[in-house]
Amino acid sequence: MRGSLHKRMHSLTMSFANSSIMKDHLLMDIDRLVRLNMESWTGRVLLLDEAKKITFYLTVKQLMSFDPCEWTQNLMKEYMLVIEGFFSVPLRIFSPTYRRAIQARTKVAEALSLVVRERRKESEGGERKNDMLGALLDEDGNGGGFSDEEIVDFLLALLVAGYDTTSTIMTLAVKFLTETPLALSQLKEEQDEIRARKGEKEALTWEDYKSMPFTQCVVNETLRIANIISGVFRRAITDVNMKGYTIPKGWKVFASLRAVHLNQEYFKDARSFNPWRWQINNNTPGATSPLNVFTPFGGGPRRCPGYELARVELSVFLHHIVTRFSWLPAEQDKLVFFPTTRTQKRCPIIVQSRVVSGPCKEV
Ligand code: HEM
Question: Residues enclosing ligand 1, CB less than 6 A?
Answer without folding.
Answer: 10, 13, 17, 158, 161-162, 165-166, 169, 228-229, 232, 296-299, 302-306, 309-310
